[in-house]
Design goal:
The chain is of the alpha+beta class. It is 51% helix and 16% strand. The longest helix is centred in the middle third of the chain and has 29 residues, at 50-78. Keywords: Pyridoxal phosphate.
Length: 165
């Protein structure tokens, strides 16, 4: 399991595993990608403050993620895109199948390229070995103003192709 935390442009992650092989691999990788000592100390101090974690950081983080996800899902629904329902997290799976003509992974790639051209980085389902084309994974952990901009760009892409209307 990998968990990450973003702290004002610091990205720190932790790998938790009972598998010896993955632990050994992570140790070798850490030699080349070490987290600087001052950053490790800062994270250590934050993680030692259980009161702050339990009463401030975790509740605030959950609230912000929930609000961001709600904004994104509501916007997608307004565009006629359904989303797999799940608890608060940093990603949602959105169903773009109705925008694919034909229903192929090649058509999914074409739609993905149009997203990229509009500077929308939405990961296509084929990258996650989805069994059917048309599913995309979207990040929800963004400020509401950025989510709104992304939704406008998404609307522009989906309305730009006559066969997608």
């Amino acid at each position: 399991m990998i968990s990450d935390t973003k702290l004002c442009s610091y990205l720190v992650f932790q790998i938790q595993s009972e598998l010896t092989l993955s632990g050994a691999s992570a140790s070798r990788l850490a030699f080349f990608h070490q987290c600087p000592g001052p950053t490790q100390y800062m994270v250590y101090r934050l993680l030692c403050d259980r009161g702050w974690l339990d009463n401030v950081y975790v509740p605030t983080n959950k609230k912000l993620l929930s609000e961001s996800q709600k904004t994104l899902v509501t916007g997608l629904n307004k565009l006629g895109i359904s989303v797999l329902h799940r608890s608060t997290g940093i990603y949602v799976w959105a169903d773009f199948r109705k925008f694919l003509r034909p229903q192929t992974f090649e058509a999914e790639s074409d739609l993905w390229r149009r997203f990229i051209a509009e500077k929308l980085y939405i990961i296509r389902g084929e990258a996650f070995e989805c069994s059917e084309p048309g599913w995309f994974r979207l990040t929800t952990a963004l400020p509401d103003d950025i989510v709104q901009i992304c939704l406008e760009k998404l609307k522009k892409v989906l309305q730009s192709e006559p066969q997608l209307k």
